[in-house]
Amino acid sequence: MRVAKPCGMMKLMTEDRTKLHWAELAVAIRSAREARGLSQGALAELAGVSEGSVQNLEGGKPRNRMPQTLTKIEPHLGWAPGSGRAVLEGGKPTPVAVVHDISADLVAAENKLRRKLPLRIVDELESDDPLLDSTVIQLPGVDGARMTVVVHGRPDATPEQIQEALLAWRAAERKLRRLPDGGDDEPQAANGS
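Above: the chain sequence. Below: its structure as tokens.
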């Protein structure tokens, strides 16, 4: 009886993945991620995978199956397709020339901002509620000190309720700015200050 030699998909299905270099892959992923200034969560967000998946890969434990996460994170690590597999087989990742990864910069900036702000403010800023207005107000008598105000409406608000909320905000804004009460200001669209 003649037995066919495993090749292609059959080879991938039958290989012993526990003999691959999982610990080396973990170190390579962590190093590439940190070199790009990304947290595990930021990398996960860019790649469209869970943070736990990134943590598992960086854990370095041998696996029975090839994780799909690996191919999803490669481009965000600056690696060419198949680089993760190359590391698992004892090689090195192939770098990809990146003109400029603006998405990584945005995620890093967003994470920096999140670390600076109290959680309740981050939650409010990330809310899906409609933005009605925002402004920065100089604090009187304190050189350079200012406050930032973001006004959100209810997600289910009617146009009349939004109008009412904008009028209430305009009155509150006058008090914050210590302006005289105005009469019939027309509310402006979001970010209209």
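Residues 7-13, 184-193 have pLDDT under 50 and may be disordered.
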